[in-house]
């Protein structure tokens, strides 16, 4: 992967936050700007664990701001979402400092980060945060039931318990708000265009595809893809060895195609 990253402080509503900035080798004049949120089932994870996906986004032509929200995730909803929303608002106002003043703004995340990205897209619609161009969701945690057919087929065993534990921690004892469990949201019209990626062996496959279908039925522009073969998703996302996985080029191509279809990059 050709993307390089540097670390800097982002002055958000939560105060100074350390973030990683990924930039590919060949950037357009107005590259898309992506807020990337790592996985970890709301139990652990870090910006380092998100290095693979962030690098693929940068290789697709984006400037990627990767945030470590793990401290906020130690508290139940809405702490992590509020933290991420503060970062998104900062990028919206100061995008010229990271990419270009006319760069399109995206949110992206895998697994728990995909949950936050979907929740941010819903909130951005509701509070009229300007110019959110798209949401990129990889194996997003959307359904707290942890009981879909793909979960049963994956026979995830102890991993099922991990995701169930993560959901129980994140939701706490409060009501299941649509921002916390986007898969339960009854109002999806008007959210930003979505790219939804999953895999045949992904326990989150069914909830990912169901969300893509419901977004499309609500009039949202959606691209969705299911990778074949053994991908090891979502655990494979946290591989930070630097090795490019077999599916890396394909996923990078999906990212680039989505940026082009949303007008963030030229064809």
From TrEMBL:
<dbReference type="InterPro" id="IPR029058">
    <property type="entry name" value="AB_hydrolase_fold"/>
</dbReference>
<protein>
    <submittedName>
        <fullName>Acetyl esterase/lipase</fullName>
    </submittedName>
</protein>
<dbReference type="Pfam" id="PF07859">
    <property type="entry name" value="Abhydrolase_3"/>
</dbReference>
<keyword id="KW-0378">Hydrolase</keyword>
<dbReference type="InterPro" id="IPR050300">
    <property type="entry name" value="GDXG_lipolytic_enzyme"/>
</dbReference>
<feature type="domain" description="Alpha/beta hydrolase fold-3">
    <location>
        <begin position="34"/>
        <end position="229"/>
    </location>
</feature>
<dbReference type="InterPro" id="IPR013094">
    <property type="entry name" value="AB_hydrolase_3"/>
</dbReference>
<dbReference type="GO" id="GO:0016787">
    <property type="term" value="F:hydrolase activity"/>
</dbReference>
